[in-house]
Amino acid sequence: MNTLFKQTLTASILSSMIAGTAFAAPAEAPPVFVKRVADALISRLKADHAKLQSNPASVNAIVKQNLDPYVDAQSFTRIVMGTYAAPQNSTAQQRAAFEHNLRQSLVQNYGSALAKYSNQSYSLRPYKPTGGAFPVVTIDFVNQGQKTPVSFQLTDSNSQWKIRNINVAGIDLGLQFRNQFAATVKRNGGNIDKAIATFKPDADAAVKK
């Protein structure tokens, strides 16, 4: 086998592998993914209901195990940082620190909300593909007759669906947290490091907007 043929064959194989990887899509349909995650999370909340009543903070472990792995933290970080996520406005170290702090804060936010769970019912809305890059799946949570729609915007992360943003009752949490972070930067005189260290996203305030 001559050298030119070997090079051509190698290039062909590599191109096929790259193309196959680039166009691989998650095998799971978006609504199936969201329902699977929601069912597992709610089942765990039900199983640990008595424990949560005596120790609400223990719900944080449930969030870390049953929700956090399915969140695309990097995408959500870029959404919340907004223009500050651009390389000219922050360093890689600052973005990593922000992602870490944001993730910890979100666990506490979601934990606080889920600790109040008391057998509310929920149902998946009929899924309507839009053909866009970020599918949206909506679940209606019903508590004492009041229905709250929660929409999960997904992204394809290495052929696995992950949640990149959440909309609660028409309120875009990513956008609201972005506004909160921008206000934090302003309060700190434009000092990104101080803003990152002190930023605490407030989900309750965001939803009440």
Annotation field: number of helices: 9
Structural class: alpha+beta
End-to-end separation: 69 Å
Instruction: Write out the strand line-up for the largest beta sheet, numbering strands in chain order.
Output: 1-2-3-4-5
Pfam family, one: MlaC
Signal peptide: 1-24
Protein name: Toluene tolerance protein
Organism: Acinetobacter brisouii CIP 110357
Compose a concise summary of this entry.
The chain is of the alpha+beta class and 209 residues long. It has helices spanning 3-22, 30-47, 49-54, 59-66, 73-81, 92-114, 173-187, 192-198, 203-207; strands at 121-124, 136-143, 146-157, 160-168, 171-172.
Structure commentary:
The protein is of the alpha+beta class and 209 residues long. It has one domain: Nuclear Transport Factor 2, Chain: A. The chain is built from nine helices and five strands. It has helices at residues 3-22, 30-47, 49-54, 59-66, 73-81, 92-114, 173-187, 192-198, 203-207; strands spanning 121-124, 136-143, 146-157, 160-168, 171-172. It has a five-stranded antiparallel beta sheet with strand order 1-2-3-4-5. A hairpin with a 2-residue loop joins strand 2 and strand 3. Helix 6 runs parallel beside helix 8 and helix 7 crosses helix 8 (192-198). The longest helix is centred in the middle third of the chain and has 23 residues, at 92-114. It is globular and about 45 Å long. The termini are far apart. Residues 3-22 have low confidence and may be disordered. It comes from Acinetobacter brisouii CIP 110357. It holds the Pfam family MlaC. Residues 1-24 form the signal peptide. This is Toluene tolerance protein. Keywords: Signal.
